[in-house]
Amino acid sequence: PWICSGMTGGRVYLRHWPEMGLTEEAMRRRLAKGAKVAVKPLDLRGIEDVRELLSAYIRVLKEAKREEKAARLEKLLLDPAQHFRMVEPVSQQVEQGVSTE
Questions:
Q1: Is 3 a domain residue?
Q2: How many Å separate Cα 3 from the centre of its chain?
Q3: Positive or negative, the Cα torsion across 30, 32, 34, 40?
Q4: Any transmembrane segments, and where (predicted)?
């Protein structure tokens, strides 16, 4: 049930849907204890990523004749920043005196 345990890179995109209880607060509650990550609004790259991922999923749904589901998801493409949040690792500055490199 805990997310982002040990996350050191990349991004995770989460559905933001307050009416269904999927709030930023709820997302933060699900983070693994000690996860060094931040829940943030989408940036430009995040918007592009979500559009690409959703578009691919919508294409597969249409191929499977799941038009109704595809139509609901197409609405999310209009404003991905409203409907999704991203989780990224918090950048950590390494103290040079401690670094082993």
A1: no
A2: 11
A3: negative
A4: none
